[in-house]
């Protein structure tokens, strides 16, 4: 069963038709994998490709799930190496790299059409 923050969450909510409808499942302890479909409504300044913020939102949500159900991002950085085309799935993976007390560090990747399009790092409050 896919992990969900709540039904209207922009990233993972099942009833937010404008959202990403991100589907991630636990792949291993401290790791998740899944995907989101890049819809026409997710376009950025380059027609036919996802807005960079859409990919960032997917990676932030995935890292939060890897860190735990109550994790909230406190710092985030992302590097883009390509673009995700409209009408394609973005494959998302995230994992915890380090956990210490009330915080965790995580990394995530997004691939579209078998190409890396973004890599991210985040720090999360637990």
Structure in words:
This protein has 126 residues and is mainly beta. The chain has one domain: Hotdog Thioesterase (Thiol Ester Dehydrase, Chain A, Roll), CATH 3.10.129.10. Helix content is 13%, strand content 44%. The chain is built from one helix and six strands. It has a six-stranded antiparallel sheet, covered by helices on one side. A hairpin with a 2-residue loop joins β5 and β6. The radius of gyration is 13 Å and the shape is globular. The two termini are 23 Å apart. The model has no long low-confidence stretch (mean pLDDT 96).
List the main descriptive attributes of the protein structure presented here.
about 130 residues, mainly beta, Thiol Ester Dehydrase, Chain A, six-stranded antiparallel sheet, about 15% helix, about 45% strand
- In total, the number of domains comes to 1
- Number of separate helices: 1
Tell me the radius of gyration. Answer: 13 Å
The CATH topology is given as Thiol Ester Dehydrase, Chain A
What structural category do the secondary elements indicate?
mainly beta
Largest β-sheet summary: 6 strands, antiparallel
Low-confidence stretches: none
Assigned CATH superfamily: Hotdog Thioesterase
Order of helices and strands: EEHEEEE
How many extended strands? 6
Helix amount = 10-25%
CATH architecture heading: Roll
Which oligomeric form is depicted? single chain
For the largest sheet, list the strands in their spatial order: 1-2-4-5-6-3
Average pLDDT for all residues: 96
Shape: globular
CATH class: Alpha Beta
